[in-house]
Amino acid sequence: MPIIDYYGAQGWDTQTPGLYHRQVVARDIVLASLAEQAEQADAPVSVLDVGCGDGGYLDHLAGQVGDRPVRWIGVDYSEHQLARATRLPYEFHQCDLGEGIPLPDATVDIVHAAEVIEHLYDPDLLVEECARVLRPGGHLVITTPNLHAWYNRMLFPFGIQPIFYETSSRSTQVGAGPLCRFKEQTLPVGHLRLFHRTALVDLLRREGFEPVRFRGARFHEVPRAMTWLDSLACRRPSLASILVVLAVKR
Question: Which chain regions cross the lipid bilayer (predicted)?
Fold first, then answer.
């Protein structure tokens, strides 16, 4: 399947009720950023969700701020998902992130990009575009799988392919070795680039951001017997399953 059709497929619907831990961590950071930006702004704060899907997470964020005036914006590639998003009273745009974000320069206060950057051939362009649409001092919140997660550090020396890394477009079990039986999802999610903390910091700084906070988040497919260890690793984000970073536009 061509990658342009892969992300537009109708299968990418919200399938899990509630929020993943990474979404909770990112939500708390976004809401804190929103409160900070609101104190400094004369007009309503603008929040952009990159890869917004059907708008469900954007709606969740909006539900957390009460009557505070906020301009909520979502962009996504999938026309199917955006058709579902029309039920919501927010601003949505269809776009190919490989071609940029369809918003004017310096018009947004906060950008949230959850589990997006690892799917892009050109992650540099995404960060560059986020810098372009953000006002000076604006906040960027990114979540992405951690190549250096605690279990990957143990797997790789034994010749086992790191979790989150995909070598097949048809099955996540290719290269997984003895971990195949733990794979709840066999359809690859299309990871093209994987980051660790140092790589993410380097990329952000190259594009005019200063990372100011890192948080770790759990991965929902870690075997139940190991969830306590995954939670413990979150105390040191460089070991966590998921990286959550807040960066400020310089």
Answer: none
